[in-house]
Write a structure and sequence with these properties.
single chain, about 140 residues, mainly alpha, about 5% strand, globular
Amino acid sequence: MVLLTTIQYTRMKILANILWLIFGGLNIATMYFFGSLLLAITIVGLPAAKQTLKLGLLCLWPFGSTITQTHVPTGCMRIPLDVAWLLFGGIVICALHVIYGVLLTVTIIGLPFALQHFKMAGLALSPFGKSVTLNV
């Protein structure tokens, strides 16, 4: 079993992220940012705009990024926000990521990209109370 050094791992992560951006990641991120801008126009849409911005940032640099549960007490607002998110587009976003992930599992080369879509699908179901750390 060959162990990758830190430099080799960093190079592979950068290469995978560049390939991700070329083959659709930039397009997905642009759509998320445009949706975030549209949601931010209204005062009511600001919490959802923050979440679509979070998803867009994850679409820019998914390899090496981590999603963690935040320990900030959000009170009783997280559950209603998650329910509203699911009803007004979260299920559709999750389904699209799952469909793209399933299509990418057809080839061995597409497997890492499929795993990233599955990671984003999980975040698309319940984005409130989670933070995304981009490890550039």
